[in-house]
Amino acid sequence: MTASVLVCGSMAFDTIAVFEGRFKEHILADRIQSLSVSFLVPTMRKEFGGCAGNIAYNLKLLGGQPVPVATVGDDAADYIERFNKLQIDTSRLRVMPGTFTAQCFITTDLDDSQIAAFHPGAMELSAQNDLTGAKAAWAIVAPDAKAGMFAHAERLHAAGIPFIFDLGQAMPLFDGADLERMLGLAQVLTVNDYEAGVIEQRTGRSMEQIAARMQAVVVTRGAQGSTLLTEGTTVQVPPVQAAAVVDPTGCGDSHRAGLLYGLTSGWNWLDSCRLANVMGSIKIASRGPQNHAPSRAEIDAQLRAAYGISLPA
Question: Is-contact 23 109, C-beta < 8 A?
């Protein structure tokens, strides 16, 4: 059994509606200064999401012990109940009275164009969720309110708990000095290839130079797999062929869960990255960030087929 993992980040609801037409046919360019439109959306669904929620969900699928660390609103009862039923430890979730859980409202048209609105809600208060006294083998600081990400990073560093810094959607919040500060606290950096380029630009350092001061850097490259930089070496980790490409939402979170499970199981960096690639390939074949539900045996079979290794007993 693997040791517990503190999963710091957002928990959110995503409400996704589909307009059965095209926005461009209803938005007049010469009237954009006084825009007032309404779209009928006969199809709508609500998803459980947020980086901490998604990572914890995937880590539990593997048999791990995630402990999500997040602030939620008065409306989070069904999310907390869902996690309790999944036997995910909710002791570090803090309900902030008088707030809503973070949520994104997305309307998509037939061209896959999107109009979205994001309400941070309780997420803005995540720095108040104190981790003092927490114990874990590993942790991750995933996208959240900026103050919360730094608060968690400082507390984890003070407690001697190694953690992964996952920049993700928080990228616009971090300038070069912010990134250097966070990289000085973390042991591992995980980014996609675009984020890697932004970090290199803002810090003036290459991924190789950043990796030289950390345990590892992992750069995901979608259908091209991922790149592992550790101990002065660079290894290309081959991709896993997905059964279908349906929805990339949450794929990065699934990938982080695989990486964390490998690390807490005592695996080396390469095999941990291989499992991470498998988890990302499973997620992309399902719509929504938490609707895939492979058994542990099914995950193991895909891992053996792709890389010839097996999950720990």
Answer: yes
